[in-house]
Amino acid sequence: MSESPGTAVSLDASKTTTDSLSTPLELPDVDTAPQRSEPLAAQRVLPLRRPGRWIATAVVLVVVAQIVHGLITNSFYQWDRFAYWFFRPTILDGLGITLEVTALSAVLGLLGGIVIALGRLSRSPVLRAVSWTYVWALRSIPLIVVLIFLYNFSALYKTLSVGVPFGPAFFSFDESRLATDMVVAVIGLSLNEAAYAAEVVRGGILSVDQGQHEAAAALGLPKGYQFRKIVLPQALRSITPNYVNQLIGLIKSTSLVFYVSLFDLFGAAQTMGSTYPGDIVPLLLVVTVWYLILTSIVSVVQFYVERYYARGATRSLPPTPLQKLRAGLSDLRTRIRREAAV
Amino acid sequence: MTIETLESLETASAAVEVHDVHKWYGTHRVLNGIDLTVRPGEVTVIIGPSGSGKSTLLRVVNHLEKPEIGYVSVNGELIGLRRQGDRLKELSERAILTQRSRIGFVFQNFNLFPHLTVLDNVAAAPVATGKLGKAAAQELARELLERVGLADKATAYPRQLSGGQQQRVAIARALALRPGIILFDEPTSALDPELVGEVLAVIRDLARSGTTLVIVTHEIGFAREIADRVVFIDGGKIVEQGPPAEVLDKPQHERTRDFLSKVL
C-alpha cells in the first residue's frame, strides 16, 4: 500500500492503480460523491444518524402522552367542577388579593433590599453590622412565624408613635386600627423579601466592574447619579434573573397570608374546599393553574426586562420570540426552495 | 507642613503641583516623596518600569487615590483638601467631585459605560454635573466625536467598537467637561499594535491645541516626539526629568539607561 497512498485516500474513485490492491483499501461503495462527481466543496455533508436520541425521544413522548391521558380521563380530577370554579367571584377576589399582596411586597421588598444592600456595602462598620444582622435574622426565621408574630404585634405594642427617640411623641397611632390584615401581610412579606432582595442587589452591585466606579468618579458625576445612572443599570442585568426567581417564590409565599386571616387565592380555595369537601381536588387544580399563569406572565416580563438591560452588554440583542419565529420561517422557506431545486 | 509652603503654592502659576507626595498600601510604599511641577500648556510624559508608581501618581493628581503625606494642587487649587488657618482639612465628597470634573482622566481600559450609547457616554457628564442642558451637551458631544473621527458611531454601543475607537470615545468623554488638564494612564497599553496610531494621533492633536497633558506611557518614540518634558520614575521616586533630548537620549542615571535599554 505504500506505493500508492494518494489513491487510497482520494475520493475520485478512479481504480486504475488500485486494481492490484486488496479491497479494504477501496472506499466503501456508497451512493454519495463518486457517482455525482460533484467537487467536494459543493457537496452537502450528510449529518450523523443518532438512533439513541430517537429512541429516548419516543420513550419520553409515550410517557408524556400517558400523563396527559391520565389527567384528562381520570374522573378524580373532575374537570367540569374545575371549569365551574375557575372564574368564580370568590376565587377571583382571592386572586386579586394575591396580586395586591405580591405587588406591594415585591416593590417594598426590593426598595428595602436596595437600602440594606447599600448598608452591607457601606464603609460604616455599624451600618454593615446592622444590615448583616437583619439579613441573618430574617433569612433564619420562617416566614409563617414572622407573619403570625406580626399578627399578634398589637398585643405587644398598643400604639405606634413618631417623635424624639426615647422622648416625647409627635403623633401616635392606635395600632389595632392601623394594622389591618392586609398591612400585616404586606409588612411581613416585605420584611422577609427585603432580606433576600438585599443579597440579590448586593451581588448585582458587586458584579459591576470597578473601572465603572472609577470612571464615574473621575468624571466628577454626583454620587446619586453614579448609583442611579451608571452602577444600578449595569447591576440590574444580573439582579433581574435572580430577583425574578425571588419574585416567583414570593407569589407562592403569599399563600401563607391565609394564616393571618387574609383570603388570597389559596385561602379562597381552602375555604371553599371546607364548604364543598367533594371539590377539594378541582379547587386545588384551579389554584395550581392560576399560579402557573402568574408565573408565566412574570417569565415573559422577565425576558423583555433582561433584554432591555442587555443593551450594550452584548454586541447584538437576543431576538424576541416573534423575531425568532420569523427567522425560523424564512429559514424553512429557503431550505424547502433549495430541496425543490435539487 | 508649614504655612510658607502653602502660601507659595497659592501664588504659583503651575497647572499641576505635586508636593512631597507619599503613598503606601500597608507596608508597601508606592510613592516615596514625589515633587513635580507641570506648567500650563506643557506636555509631560511619565515613564518608568511597571510597579514604579507612575499610575498611582496620576491617580493621586485627581484624588482617585489619597496621598498619605503631601498634597497636590491643580491650577493653584488644593485637590481633596482645603486650608483652614494653618491646617489642612479633607474636602467634602461633593467638592472633590467638582474638582475632578475640571480634570480629564483617560484610563488604560477605557472604562466607557457599556449600557450607554457612544453619544450618551460623551454627553452624560456635562448634563449630570449641571454644566450644560441636554440638547447643548449632545451638540457638544457630536462636535467632539467629529473631532476624534467617530461622528458616525454616535448611536453605537461601546462594545460594538474596536479598542482604538473606544479609547477615542473615552478621550471625547474626558474633553466634554472642557478640562484645563487631561491625565492619560497608559492610553494605548490595552490596544492591538495596529490601533495604537489612531489614539496617538488624537493625543497629538490635543497637545498641539495647547491643552496641558500628563501622559503615562510605554511608547518611548511617542514621548520623544510629543513631550516637552519626560519624567522617569522608579521605586516611587523621580529619578530624572528634563526635555526628551536629555532624558531619553543622554540619560544621566544608570537606572534610566537600564530601563531605556530594555524598552527601546
Automatic annotation (TrEMBL), chain A:
Q: Where is the ABC transmembrane type-1 domain?
A: 95-302
Transmembrane listed as a keyword: yes
* Parts of the chain that traverse the membrane: 54-77, 97-118, 130-149, 247-268, 280-305
- Location within or outside the cell: Cell membrane
Q: Which InterPro entries match?
A: AA_ABC_transptr_permease_3TM (IPR010065), ArtM/GltK/GlnP/TcyL/YhdX-like (IPR043429), MetI-like (IPR000515), MetI-like_sf (IPR035906)
Q: How does it sit in the membrane?
A: Multi-pass membrane protein
- Record flagged with keyword Membrane: yes
Taxonomically, the superkingdom here is Bacteria
Q: Where is this region: Disordered?
A: 1-33
Question: This protein is called what?
Answer: Amino acid ABC transporter permease
Organism field? Streptomyces carpinensis
UniProtKB/TrEMBL annotation, chain B:
The molecular function terms in GO held by this entry are: ATP binding
Alphabetical list of InterPro entries matching this protein = AAA+_ATPase (IPR003593), ABC_ATPase_HisP-typ (IPR030679), ABC_transporter-like_ATP-bd (IPR003439), ABC_transporter-like_CS (IPR017871), MetN_ABC_transporter-like (IPR050086), P-loop_NTPase (IPR027417)
Report the PROSITE patterns cross-referenced here.
Answer: ABC_TRANSPORTER_1, ABC_TRANSPORTER_2
Q: Domain of life here?
A: Bacteria
Which Gene3D superfamilies does the record match to this protein?
P-loop containing nucleotide triphosphate hydrolases (3.40.50.300)
UniProt domain ABC transporter: residue ranges: 16-260
Q: Which family does it belong to?
A: Belongs to the ABC transporter superfamily.
Q: What is this protein called?
A: Amino acid ABC transporter ATP-binding protein
Q: Identify the species of origin.
A: Streptomyces carpinensis
